[in-house]
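[Q] Does anyone have a clean structure-token version of this?
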Amino acid sequence: MKLDDIEIFVATAQTQSLTLAAQKLDMPKSTLSRRLALFEKELGVILLNRTTRKVLLTADGNELLIRARGLIHQFTVLQDDFANKGNLVSGTLTLQIPMDFYGDRLTIVLSEFLKKHVNIKVQVKQYSGNYPTTLDGFDLTFVQHSGLLPDSNFIARGLMSVSQSVYGAAMNYRKNRELDLSKCITLYNETHWYFGHAPHTRKVAVGAKMQLPSHNMLVDACIAGMGPAKLIDNQVEPYLRSGMLVKLRTPEPLEALTYSILYQGQYLPKRAELFIDYFQSEIGKVSSVALRGK
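[A] Here you go.
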């Protein structure tokens, strides 16, 4: 079993396309297809089912992918470490973040980080909702979550937590501030809210009349009277003071919103370690990572 054969398999499994995998690895599609066939023959199993539209993993292929992508990641980190020995740290830092993560301040943080590390480049991809569809292909993925994160083979490192409550438009709650959980506004694919404090939290189903991709859009829809929403307390302070929003009554306080970093493998590329250290130092300088317009 050769490491480059594993790399070809992982690229094909992640892209679900022979064409995209060949482009990613900069090799002819015919060569990639032949190498995959020889790899399957060597292992004595079928790893991929090829259709006219995409390439799908078999059960054996899925098992190999889970174990092999960790090997590829560790080998890449090893290459980076040796390439950067005695030199300025270089390479491309790949980040995946929620749509409104850290507000406008993230651009400032990235700019200042690149000034300190002139040989590093940065690529940032945004995703909507609570959790990304994939974690593959990124040095670091930032997530905002209540409750436990989904099970995965990735390592999670907590950054900080911020308090949140349920709010509604003042015009809709002049007399009664009781919460109706069947008519809420939520993030995309959010089906439950968590009340109480870990580890004794209570998971409650919530009915969404509207689902949106970001916290900022939740605030706008809530102010417009579209329904109650779970919002970050620091984010909505100006709207409470102006009388546009009111806090609604809940049986228990909402569990705090936690900010975490997910990454693959025990070891990180040096560029990722540097960014985590810098980002955490920046978090310590501000009162919240979610203040709108900051």
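[Q] Thanks! Anything notable?
[A] The two ends are 52 Å apart (CA to CA).
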